[in-house]
Design goal:
This protein has about 100 residues and is α+β, with helices and mostly antiparallel strands. The protein contains two helices and four strands, in the order H-E-E-H-E-E. It has a two-stranded antiparallel sheet with strand order 1-2. The longest helix has 26 residues. The radius of gyration is 24 Å and the shape is elongated. The protein starts with a helix and ends with a strand.
């Protein structure tokens, strides 16, 4: 194989590699439908007892659980229903309430 044929083969293989990569990302990789957002408690009291909640990435839940583990055991919560989030979704790069 001469030099031009070898360079042409490398270019074709490179193009196929790039096209395959973008196809893979589109089919299996990151897209907004694959991002999991969940509702978490952000205060020691749950939302059905006056506390607050928000939508976060599923990968961030542990951080909130660690913070809640520091809540005092003898905490008195208000009997006020403040739950507002029915479900969470990933929109414009953020987890938001739907």
């Amino acid at each position: 194989m001469d030099k031009k044929g070898f360079v042409g083969l490398i270019v074709v293989l490179g193009v196929l590699l790039v096209v395959g990569f973008f196809w893979f990302i589109g089919e299996k990789g990151f897209n907004e439908e694959n991002v999991e957002c969940v509702k978490v408690r952000t205060t020691c009291c749950p939302c059905n007892m006056g506390g607050k909640e928000k939508c976060v990435l599923a990968s961030e839940v542990k951080e909130y659980e660690v913070n809640l583990s520091e809540c005092p055991e003898d905490l008195v919560c208000l009997a006020v229903y403040s739950c507002e989030i029915e479900s969470c979704g990933y929109i414009d790069g953020k987890c938001v309430a739907r």
